[in-house]
């Protein structure tokens, strides 16, 4: 009887394997169909997006051609259309600044050079042309505070990354100190250092965001603009602001902006004569 029992056990095993094979095949087929569907969906998205990217490239090339042909007003219109459509890049703002510079609109040239530098801090051409435009217009600049001068070695995004890294390392160190019986002096020291880095990064981010180059930075785009003591054209003047001058928006009241001005002054200017750098 022993051989018969062995044959039955082997037969049952073979039957089970044969029953499992179609199921495995179904899983593989389903996985294959999912992969094909994902590929087709990706291809469809790329196919539908390709004309939009091609159109943007064509519009950018058209704007550059208008600029090369010295049709600066047309080039300005084309670049601004790209920006309204969401095509923000340091080079687009830089080219728009160049078009305004050629059109002798130094206020808006400086505004767009500043926007290019807000997107790409190390843009040598924008930095150089910004200084040339300031010299041409006689634009006034805000004086950064002493902490801001030292903290400008890094950008807000870099300080934000440092804060995030310090937070998670500090969290790991705290968990290790709580869960382990033996307290490591090195782990505790690292925890303290990460807390200091976190606090310093948060302070640096806050200081830069509220500083002379922060969110409230605006550029005077109008001509013959006078900052005044009150929200009236007849109020006493505080400071004459050439085109391209920097101001820091503190508050708004109707059609007027109350701003911090160069030379540590404050005053009201018409809102239509200034635009904030950050969009």
Give an overview in words.
The protein has 279 residues and is an alpha+beta fold. It is built from eight helices and seven strands. The chain has helices at 2-68, 72-84, 90-102, 106-119, 124-137, 146-151, 156-179, 185-209; strands spanning 217-220, 225-228, 237-241, 246-253, 256-261, 265-270, 274-276. The strands form two sheets. The chain has a five-stranded antiparallel beta sheet with strand order 6-5-4-1-7. The N and C termini lie far apart (88 Å). 26% of the residues are buried. Residues 1-21 have low confidence and may be disordered.
Number of strands: 7
Which strand order does the major sheet show?
6-5-4-1-7
Name the structural class: alpha+beta
Sketch the major β-sheet: 5 strands, antiparallel
Rounded to the nearest angstrom, the distance between the terminal CA atoms is 88 Å
**Uncertain stretches:** 1-21
Total domains: 3
N-to-C SSE string, H for helix and E for strand: HHHHHHHHEEEEEEE
Which range best describes the helical content: under 10%, 10-25%, 25-40%, 40-55%, 55-70% or over 70%?
55-70%
CATH topology of the largest domain: Serine Threonine Protein Phosphatase 5, Tetratricopeptide repeat
Q: How large a portion of the residues is in β-strands, by DSSP E? A: 5-15%
Q: What's the total helix number?
A: 8
What is the second-level CATH architecture of the largest domain? Alpha Horseshoe
The first-level CATH class of the largest domain is given as Mainly Alpha
- Report mean pLDDT, rounded to a whole number: 84
Radius of gyration equals 31 Å
Dominant shape: globular
- Within CATH, the superfamily of the largest domain carries the name Tetratricopeptide repeat domain
């Amino acid at each position: 009887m022993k051989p018969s029992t062995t044959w039955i056990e082997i037969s049952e095993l073979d039957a089970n394997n044969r029953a499992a094979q179609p199921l495995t095949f179904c899983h593989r087929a389903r996985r294959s169909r999912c992969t094909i569907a994902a590929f087709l969906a990706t291809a469809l998205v790329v196919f539908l997006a390709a004309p939009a990217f091609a159109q943007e490239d064509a519009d950018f090339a058209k704007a550059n051609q208008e600029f090369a042909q010295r049709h600066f007003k047309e080039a300005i219109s084309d670049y601004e259309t790209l920006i309204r459509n969401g095509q923000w890049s340091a080079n687009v703002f830089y080219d728009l600044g160049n078009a305004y510079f050629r059109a002798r609109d130094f206020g808006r040239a400086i505004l767009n050079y500043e926007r290019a530098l807000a997107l790409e801090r190390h843009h040598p051409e924008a930095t150089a042309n910004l200084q040339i435009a300031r010299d041409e217009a006689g634009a006034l600049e805000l004086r950064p505070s002493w902490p801001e001068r030292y903290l400008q070695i890094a950008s807000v995004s870099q300080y934000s990354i440092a804060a995030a890294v310090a937070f998670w390392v500090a969290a790991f160190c705290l968990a290790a100190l709580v869960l382990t019986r033996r307290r490591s002096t090195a782990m505790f020291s690292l925890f303290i250092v990460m807390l200091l880095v976190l606090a310093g990064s948060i302070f640096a981010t806050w200081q830069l965001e509220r500083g002379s180059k922060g969110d409230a930075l605006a550029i005077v785009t109008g001509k013959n603009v006078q900052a005044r003591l009150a929200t009236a054209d007849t109020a006493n003047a505080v400071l004459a602001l050439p085109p391209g001058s920097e101001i820091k928006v503190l508050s708004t009241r109707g059609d007027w902006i109350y701003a911090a001005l160069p030379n540590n002054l404050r005053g009201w200017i018409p809102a239509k004569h200034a635009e904030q750098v950050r969009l």
